[in-house]
Amino acid sequence: MVEDVRAIALLSGGLDSALAAALTLRLGFGVVGVNLATGFCTGQGRCDTVLATGQALGIPIRLLDVSREYLDVVRHPRHGYGSRMNPCIDCRIFMVRKAGEVMAAEGAAFVVTGEVLGQRPMSQHRRALDLVAAESGLGERLVRPLSGRLLGPTLPERMGWVRREDWLDIQGRSRRRQLALAREWGITQFVQPSGGCCLLLEKVYAARVKDAFRTRGPELTADEFALLRHGRHFRLSPAVKVVVGRDEMDNEILSKFAAGRWMLSLPDVPGPVAVVEGAPTEEELVLAAQLAARYSDARPGEPVRVTLVRDRETRTLSVIPLAKDDPRIASWMLGE
Ligand code: SF4
User: Fold this and answer.
1) Among the three residues 200, 232, 260, which one is the final residue of a domain in this structure?
2) Which atom of ligand 1 is nearest to the CA of 38?
3) 269-280, pLDDT tens digit by residue?
4) Would you tell me which of 46, 156, 312, 321 could form a disulfide with 13, CB atoms 3.0–4.6 Å apart?
């Protein structure tokens, strides 16, 4: 009985994965949705969208934080990076393997994803899809319902639970058919692809990640990784980086990274909070203070006080802000 067979649907919050889950349900299978939080998602409210999809489809949702393990995928992708720091093939293998673990734990028979043949040049061509199936260890237990008719046979077909023509034959980058199906099946909540999906594809963020791997190597901590998301980043030397808040929210977030780092602020004028990573020399500390002052309301060319606090140590420096057009600023700035 097909209704006794369960599938795990890997849900990203996007339309394709919601449709893959919906089609699997419509074919009579039980479905459990899984969302994996890698720490690199950019879509606002992605988890909420996945939960809403679960509610609309009437399926249970498992939300899993895999960010620690995922860091290793980003550090050492066997299949390399895409255009930026996005290790798409290794990422897909990791995600599918994780979904496979849930499949085993839930006693499900197969995993479905929203992948569409030819939709993404790097990770969704036929060879990449086959590679993901093989290297994730799922093989015929990995089903892509939206392109299933165009791909090799999978377990549900071999077992006679579905016919080949029950799957769809969507391919390519156009989303016309998916949008039509969403209307037909009443799927209204999904993250728009134009909203981006992955920080690792973003130029500035990718430059920061690359710099962090180069300068910190295996020493890089999860805390340092988290800091890459915030502020403007300036690499003063291989051992020292300064992060300067861009707005109130950045300043508030940067303040949470104070432990063990020099925190800079300007007591006399409105200005940013800045964090110094590494072990700065006296000269680099002065440069960091001048840099923070550059982004404050201090008068150009006039001295301004900068307070430096590291754990229980407090100092005050009087510095001249760097000039706005000081060419060193552009050479230090990562990715912008
Ligand atoms: S874009 Fe990011 S989330 Fe998507 S497959 Fe590539 S690395 Fe993974």
Assistant:
1) 200
2) 3
3) 999 999 999 999
4) 46
